[in-house]
Amino acid sequence: MYNEKDLDTIDLNTAPPAEEPERQYYFMAKCRQYVRELEKKIGRRPTFFTQTFGCQMNARDSEKLTGMLKEIGYAPAENESADFVIYNTCTVRENANNKVYGRLGYLNGIKKKNPHMMIGLCGCMMQEPTVVERIRTGYRFVDLVFGTHNIYKFAELAAAAFVSSEMIIDIWEDTDKIVEDLPSERKYPFKSGVNIMFGCNNFCSYCIVPYVRGRERSREPKEILREIERLVADGVVEVMLLGQNVNSYGKNLEQPMTFAELLREVEKIEGLKRIRFMTSHPKDLSDELIAVMKESKKICRHIHLPIQSGSSRILKLMNRRYDREHYLELISKIRAAIPDIAVTTDLIVGFPGETEKDFEETIDMVRKVRYDSAFTFIYSRRTGTPAAALPEQVPQEVVKERFDRLLKEVQTIAAEQSERLTGQTLPVLFEEVNDHDSSLITGRLSNNSVVHVPGTKDMIGTIANVRLEECRGFYYIGRLCDAKTVF
Predict the structure, then answer these.
(1) CA atoms within 13 Å, Cβ hemisphere of 269
(2) Is the CB of residue 145 less than 8 Å from the CB of residue 169?
(3) Torsion over CA of 61, 63, 65 and 71, rounded to 10 degrees?
C-alpha cells in the first residue's frame, strides 16, 4: 500500500536525504542494487524469511520489514534456509529469549554452508544491554542488530550491513520519532493492524515493556485516519488499533484527544466494517469509552481487559493501580452497556509472595467474571524489573500446580460461555481456508470467536450471516445464510 515510489528513479549519486521517510527510500534503492548484484552472483533471486515472536505490535513491525525486503528485491521463503533471515524478538518472558538463542544456533549451521547469508535481530529482546553483549560476543555470525525504536531505519541499517564485515549494532534507548509511511506487506489483504501509539508509562513491577518500548508516544489522529482510509481503499474491512495501553491514547499530543474520541472519528470512515483494539488497561478505561462502544455499529463486541491477579494485595505489589473491586465494577458497567460483549483477559500465576489465599482470589475472579477466554502465564522473572528483587519467589512446583488448576477453570468456563451463542445467526468475517479441511472456510465473529463454515476460497475477506449450528468447545460449526448478506 505504501509502495508509491519508483526506487529505480532515485539518484544514488547524491547525498541521502535528511528527512524521513525519504531517507529510507534512498537506502532501499541502495539495497536494491546490492540485492541485484547478489542475484547475479548466486544465479537466482535471493530469498528472505522473517520470524515474529511476541505481540501484535511486533507482528505489525514484521509486516513493515517484509514490505521493505520485498521492495528491495527479496522473494519470500517458507523457512530459515533463506538468504536473509530476521528474528523480530520478544522479551516479556525468559523462554522467549531462550527460543531465540536456540534458533540462532541452528542458523549458524546454515550460514556456514551459505556465507552470503545475512542474519538480522530486532525487537524488544535487543533493547536489553546484556542480550546485545551476549549476541556480540557469542554469536559473531549475526550481521545486524537493532531494537524497537529504530525499526523504520531497517533499509539504512541493511545497506550498511551489506558492505560491512563487522556486525552492525544500532540500539536506541528511546525516541520521540514516529515514522510510519513505509512499505508494508499485510498478512491478510482484508484486515490490518494500525499503530496508534508506542511505549508504555505504567511500569507494572513485573513488566519489562516500558524499558524496551520506551515512554508513551501517540500518533497524530489525522495520520491514523489517513492510514486507515488508505487501507480501506486497498481492500481492508477490519482494523486493529494497536498500543501497549490504548486507553491512554492522546495524552501527550499537542492537542490532547481521548481514545474514545479517536474511535468516533475512525467510525466515520466509509467502507470500514469492523474496528478492534488492543490492549486496554483497567485503570484508564473510561465511561466515555464504554458509551462509544455501546453506540458503535463497527466496534467489535470484544474487549481484552487484563486483570493479572484477582488479589488486591498482589495487584498492589504489581503496581497495577486498581483493585479487584474496581475491576469488577468495570466489568459490571461494560456488560450492563453491552450485554453481548466477550471479555478476555491475562492472568499471571506465581507472582512473588503469592499465597494460596491470593491464588484462590484469582480463581474466584475467573468464576465471577466468567471470561470468554484468558491467556494464562507463569510469572517470569525479568532482570531489571522491581518484581525480580522481591523476596518470596514462589517455588516452581507450587506455581505449576496452581497454573494447572487455573487453566482447567478458565477452559471450563470459556467452553460454557461459548455455548450461549449456539443457534444464533451472526455476521462472520471469513479469513482463510481451514488448515485441516479444505472444504471449510474459517472466520471470526465480532466477539472474536472462531467459526468454520462449508465454503469456497472466494469467500475470504467477505462478511456474511452465519447460523451457528454447533459449538465444539472453543469454535463453532456454522451454516452460511442468504448470500445477499455478504458485504
Answers:
(1) 26
(2) yes
(3) -150
Judging by beta carbons within 10 Å of its beta carbon (0-12, 13-18, 19+), is residue 88 exposed, middle or buried?
A: buried
pLDDT tens, 310-369? 999 999 999 999 999 999 999 999 999 999 999 999 999 999 999 999 999 999 999 999
Q: From CA 398, how far away is CA 250, in angstroms rounded?
A: 42
pLDDT band at 4 (very low <50, low <70, confident <90, very high): low
DSSP annotation of 57:
H
And the C-alpha cell for 320? Answer: 497495577
Q: Which amino acid is at 140?
A: R
Closest CA to 312 of 320, 300, 301, 304: 320
E strands within 395-438? 425-433
pTM for this entry: 0.87
What is the C-alpha to C-alpha distance for residues 81 and 49, in angstroms, rounded to an integer?
Answer: 8
Size of the chain in residues = 487
479 beta partners: 467
Ramachandran angles phi, psi of 39, nearest 5°? -60, -45
pLDDT digits (tens, 9 = 90+) for 285-305: 999 999 999 999 999 999 999
Give the C-alpha separation, 203 to 246, whole Å: 15
